[in-house]
Amino acid sequence: MTGAVLWHLPLRILSRLAPEPYRSAARALNAALAGRSDHPLLRLLSRIQREVAPPVRRRFWRNVLRRWLLTGSKIRGRAQVQFPPVLLLSLTDTCNYRCKGCYAAGHEKGHQMDPALVDRLIREAEAHGTNYFVILGGEPFLWPHLILMLRNHPEAWFQVYTNGSLIDRQTAVDLRKVANVQVMISLEGLRDQTDARREAGAFDNCIRAMAHLRAERLPFGVGITCYRSNVREVVSEEFVREMISRGCLFLWYFYYMPYGDLPEFDEVLTPEDRAHLYREVVHIRSAYPVIAADQIADCTPVGGCAARAGLALHIAAAGLVEPCAQMHFSDCSIHGKSILEVLKESEFLRRIRSPAAEPSRACFLQDCCSELQQIVRLSGARDNTGGRDTQSLAEMASRVGDGESVVAGDLDDPYAPLTKFFFEMLSPVDASSGG
Fold first, then answer.
1. Given pLDDT bands bounded at 50, 70 and 90, which one contains residue 245?
2. Is the bond into 21 cis (omega within 30 degrees of 0)?
3. Of 48, 50, 331, 423, which is the most exposed, with the fewest CB atoms less than 10 Å away?
């Protein structure tokens, strides 16, 4: 029997008899497979079965699918204020690299989160149905409490972004033991592109980190910043095959944002670049056993912006609360306040999330620069980079104004039913508009 047939009968039964939201999940998965024995999702599931250690697989299914997407969506839907299903935490702004174009480079320096604060934020989020955390920096592995934090929260799932230079064999062993982490290694393409943006030897550091993670059967992938100069390479067959051969399960594509130190406005993706990127991401999903995602185009079901939809919230190392990790403006701090209090009191977040301010399906920092300038001004938000991002925002506004995000149109995406279900689970069901 083929893989699709083996899945079909139990999924069909679940789609009819299981309670919601499990019934919808089974229906979405069955629609995605659609009787195809060669569906890339089946090949991906086969890879996960072979390449990811059983304790990690079990923790993923329990923490992500059950606690976060299914049970968590019900808890978040009952909240009086829309609680973000994804919490991004920049544990430190210290880094051992100085990468060209780093979105985080403009932050004021010298901060790292107190472990007690991080513990409090995670426990509060879990109480509101959010147990999915994206860990950022600086370089997270320079934060000395990282492994202990992962160990102390076994019911959470952590996606850790790293340059890979500090992941040795012992670190990989420690990560396998906690079993609740997905590592995302940042690079900009193959050796020449990555070393040019980071430093000589950076690509080899990434490859060594992948080898250690693969040896311990941990799930990992790459986070790729797309510039005008590398956007063709990073979706090429050569690049995709190379990453899969190294054990990558995820290819996350992010747009270059010309904010922070030394912005390069000529490297911002053109509309044609963005359409090409999205077409190729869909092709990758159709042809390879790997999960590929486009930062903005894949968010079109919620307006193209996770921050506008209230699906994510970023807390910087200094405790400043920002709509997303790349938008360095805020009017509040987490010190002395709960996340819920911040969501209720922040005028900046209220204006960012206002449904009335949703004229386009686009990114604030790429496409809605004039709108963002106005929101910053009206809410009295501060520039957390000391004025540098205000200048960059003005430059971007003069170049692009406000408009629609550009995607490739209707494409035959094999993951479309699952993407729809995913955003339905993340979006609040019963939350009031008070957030």
1. very high
2. yes
3. 50
Do 26 and 173 lie in a common domain?
no
Q: Classify 363 in phi/psi space as left (phi over 0), alpha (psi -120 to 50) or beta.
A: beta
Q: Which is nearest to 335 in space by CA: 350, 317, 323, 362?
A: 317
Residue 17 resides in a domain:
yes
Tell me: do 68 and 214 sit in the same domain.
yes
DSSP-based helix, strand, coil % in the chain, nearest 5: 50, 15, 40
- Taking CA atoms, 83 is separated from 15, 416, 430, in Å, by 28, 25, 11
189 part of a folded domain: yes
Cα 280 from Cα 236, distance rounded (Å): 8
Does 78 share its domain with 132?
yes
CATH assignment of the domain containing 177: 3.20.20.70
Whether residue 301 lies inside any domain: the answer is yes
Domain count, the chain: 2
CA distance from start to end of the chain: 50
pLDDT of residue 52: 97
Residue 111 lies inside a defined structural domain of this protein: yes
* Cβ atoms of residues 259 and 389 within 8 Å: yes
**Same-domain check for residues 127 and 262:** yes
Residue 19's domain comprises 1-37
Find out whether 1 and 26 touch, Cβ atoms under 8 Å.
Answer: no
Between 243 and 100, the higher pLDDT residue: 243
* pLDDT at site 107: 60
Q: Report the share of the chain in percent with pLDDT over 70.
A: 85
Judge whether residue 430 has pLDDT over 50: no
* 176 contacts 129 by C-beta, under 8 angstroms: no
Asked whether the predicted pLDDT for residue 301 surpasses 50, the reply is yes
pLDDT at 158 over 70: yes
What would the DSSP string read from start to end of 317-370? TTSBEESSTT--EES-BSTTS-HHHHHHH-HHHHHHH-GGG--SSS-TTTTBHH
Predicted pLDDT at 431: 40
Question: Are 28 and 125 within one domain?
Answer: no
pLDDT tens track for 45-78: 889 999 999 999 999 999 998 899 888 888 887 8
